[in-house]
């Protein structure tokens, strides 16, 4: 089992985004058993990138030997397994070295560690359990200088740098080119991830861009990189893209749907005056365009949940999904399916009245 750490030196260049997307792509697209570890114990946020806000157990519990490493592996709704960290101010004492043995017991294909910003003491425990580093940088001189120092510090702990990931590339004249970046490092640039507004949007929604916007420019590059790390190749399929786009015309993602219905708060809402209660209206359900389009939207969601269940059963019977993940996903799809069926039945009953 290989342990890779995603380093950068400079903060905010895209380490967590990279770990979240690589873990999601490797788990779902390439069917590998991946564990993402939040090694950023002073400002942990890998869980947030994956839409999880609280965890029963974290890395801190493993290190304090309160639970085993298996207990701290959390399966996110999109199937990604992570060991989250918990905000801790005594974090420089965190000793990840104890974890390496326990990690070896888990038969994962790859462990990806999201490291902390900066190159102080906090990075050392991560480097001690790492086999290879992936260094993320933006194509600007301050980030590149820090990334170079990150590769040097990694080398001191016998951690070779597998490659440089250039993130948030806009392609304008103020950036260093790939060949200029490569001339600085001993390692090659293995991925160029463009600046892509979908990345921010998907972080906001708590689902990595490779899952929520699988054909956005950044998602495609993350998937190519994921494949190259495990000796596989991402096969871009035009037909899949068309099908996905077509489905999304009808099936807006849940958050977008909610946000469109929630008016933005632009000013303070005055306290309500006491108003005499209106007599309860007996509303005739009207078969408006809104109702019809909501019904169509729900039917597509129901079909998708049904298709997901069938797909899951197939994968489980082929042995490509393990028991835990199967049970979690099955419960989720079944709950979704029931909720959609119920809502459809209610709307249909209203229309037929
Ligand atoms: N390719 C991209 N396109 C657009 N925005 C991006 C891209 N990659 C990252 N970002 C934005 O940059 C922000 C910082 O990314 P991220 O949190 O992954 O950085 P980090 O290196 O983990 O930061 P820290 O050092 O604080 O842990 C993200 O919230 C996201 O909004
Ligand atoms: Mg981070």
Written description of the protein model:
With 353 residues, this protein is of the alpha/beta class. It folds into 2 domains: 2-236, Rossmann fold (3-Layer(aba) Sandwich), CATH 3.40.50; 286-353. 48% of the residues lie in helices and 12% in strands. The chain is built from 14 helices and 8 strands. Helix 1 packs across helix 10 (217-229) and helix 13 (289-318) packs antiparallel against helix 14. Magnesium ion binds at residues 15-16, 40, 45, 114.
Overall pLDDT level: 82
Main β sheet profile: 8 strands, mixed
CATH architecture of the largest domain: 3-Layer(aba) Sandwich
Report strand %: 5-15%
Number of domains: 2
CATH topology of the largest domain: Rossmann fold
Topology pattern, helix = H, strand = E:
EHEHHEEHEHEHEHEHHHHHHH
What is the number of helical segments per DSSP (H or I, 4+ residues)? 14
* Global shape: globular
Query: What ligands can be seen in this structure?
Result: adenosine-5'-triphosphate, magnesium ion
Kindly, what is the distance between the CA atoms of the first and last residues, rounded to a whole number of angstroms? Answer: 61 Å
What is the radius of gyration computed over CA atoms, rounded to a whole number of angstroms? Answer: 23 Å
Structural class estimated from helices and strands: alpha/beta
CATH homologous superfamily heading of the largest domain: P-loop containing nucleotide triphosphate hydrolases
Low-confidence stretches: 254-286
- The total count of strands amounts to 8
Strand order of the largest sheet: 3-4-2-5-1-6-7-8
CATH class group of the largest domain: Alpha Beta
What multimeric state do the chains show?
Answer: single chain
